[in-house]
Write a structure and sequence with these properties.
about 260 residues, alpha/beta, TIM Barrel, 8-stranded parallel beta barrel, 8 strands, binds 3-methyl-2-oxobutanoic acid
């Protein structure tokens, strides 16, 4: 399937089979997740925190993203590869388009950027050039410094209206899906019911969106130093890795 066919197929999942999306940053993880049948592989700028060891996503550069998008693309997944535009690489519509083109040249089939109304012209520049775009509303990790932390969104009528207006601006600009992050369940449910494109939730409560996205290390239990309260680990790779390394060390030292 082409990138456009993959994006259209996901868009058509609105209200249907829930979309299962995961982040991936490297070749083996992308292959394994794709073998499992995941719908979306997001090369998210969470890369900065869970792979590169930065305190937040504001340290991620386009060079980092291109390196990891290319690694994921070498897995040639059936899932659509979505690449995040890192902070300050989409300050203007022209910059946004240039960054999106570089991510596509590295292997992304769609791109994602954070924000609503103030990003609409940038989204339009990218979609007009034929590149599928995913929006991202609610808690925006790239604004963590300005906002002084990670806060739940959609708690007041004003915040809900802002989310709805932002979503409409993104839809008018051509996004095929919208990630909702840390939006309170009632607002996420209401947005999901009223928007014509699929919503993909993280930290929005259970069954409030058309799909879910998770950071892969939260699912694998491989980043024990920070586990978000909404994470639902399906494995404990941190313990497995420590045990495997201890057994290896013992075998080498006790020969
Ligand atoms: O960078 C990322 O992993 C993301 C998800 C949290 C949606 O944007």
């Amino acid at each position: 399937m082409t990138a456009h066919q993959k994006a259209a197929a996901l868009g058509a999942r609105k209200g249907g089979l829930p979309i299962a999306a995961l982040t991936a940053y490297d070749y083996p993880t992308a292959r394994l997740l794709d073998d499992s049948g995941v719908d979306v592989l997001l090369v998210g700028d969470s890369l900065g925190m869970v792979v590169l060891g930065f305190p937040d996503t504001t340290h991620v550069t386009l060079a980092h993203m291109l390196h990891h998008v290319a690694a994921v693309a070498r897995a040639k997944p059936q899932a659509i590869i979505v690449g995040d535009l890192p902070i300050h690489t989409y300050d203007t519509p022209a910059m946004a388009l240039d960054t999106a083109r570089q991510l596509v040249a590295a292997g992304a089939e769609a791109v994602k950027l954070e924000g609503g109304i103030r990003q609409a012209e940038k989204v339009r520049a990218i979609t007009s050039a034929g590149i599928p775009v995913v929006g991202h509303l609610g808690m925006l990790p790239q604004r963590v410094i300005e906002e002084g932390g990670y806060h739940k969104k959609g708690k007041t009528p004003e915040q809900s209206d802002a989310l709805r207006e932002g979503a409409q601006a993104l839809i008018d600009a051509g996004v095929f899906a919208i990630v909702l992050e840390s939006v309170i369940p009632a607002t996420a449910r209401e947005l999901t019911a009223s928007l014509p494109v699929p919503t993909i939730g993280i930290g929005c409560g259970d069954h409030t969106c058309d799909g879910e996205i998770a950071v892969i290390t939260d699912v694998l239990g491989s980043f024990p130093w920070f586990v978000p309260p909404f994470a639902k680990p399906e494995a404990d790779l941190a313990t497995s890795i420590r045990n495997a390394a201890s057994h290896y060390i013992a075998r080498v030292q006790n020969r």
